[in-house]
Amino acid sequence: MTAPGLRVLIVEDNLALRSQLAGLLEAQGHRVDFAADGRTGLALALADPPDVMVLDLGLPGLEGLRVCERLRLEADRHVPVLMLTARDAVEDKVRGFEAGADDYLVKPFAGAELLARCLALARRHRVGEPVRLRVGGLAIDRRTHAVTRDGQPVELPNIPYQLLLALAEAWPRTLTRSELVQKVWGEEAPQSDPLRSHLYVLRQALDRPFPTPMLRTVHGVGFKLEPDA
């Protein structure tokens, strides 16, 4: 475990599970804050953003999907959210990601997996980084999912947006096809080629209205962004 530890906010109404998670995280040197309902969890996350939020879906006061949506709208930086829930249907996971979750862990879970996912989220989202990301003339607001290029709005569906965000966060590095699939779909990747149609939509929105393409194919390697400014 790397030092210093993470500060993790657990929003979970089950007292026994909160205690279990606290012991697990604190044993590895992480600091833990708690909320037993959605409204309190949202207020804590906005007042003092944690490194990672572990968020249950079935919460009193304000359920988990709404907490995540409001966090994305109101926070001044990106707070990585790991949704923790007994709902394991693909449709539930899709709703979670559409609400702004970064990862999804189904109960019951192994403690080692939860620890690994929290650490991976903190690394992936560069804890404490401002909510606005820039690559040349491209600007991405992680809070609202608003994208502009040279000041012009770029309208994107969810999956092309997630692909663009992954490429922007990795810039100037090239991401392989398998890295893109993992970042967007995790372990739930479709069986057929999931990238082709979504990359086409991304190119049409990001590059077609402009004289210079930003999304580049690195043959034999993968894809990268090439800033135009």
Automatic annotation (TrEMBL):
Molecular-function GO terms, alphabetical:
phosphorelay response regulator activity; transcription cis-regulatory region binding
Give the modified residues of type 4-aspartylphosphate.
Answer: 56
**Start and end of every Response regulatory domain?**
7-122
Keyword set includes Transcription regulation: yes
Entry keyword annotation includes DNA-binding: yes
DNA-binding segment(s): 130-227
What the entry lists under PROSITE patterns is as follows: OMPR_PHOB, RESPONSE_REGULATORY
User: Which residue ranges does the record assign to the OmpR/PhoB-type domain?
Assistant: 130-227
Name of the protein: Response regulator transcription factor
Q: Name one GO cellular component term.
A: cytosol
Q: Which GO biological-process labels does this protein carry?
A: regulation of DNA-templated transcription
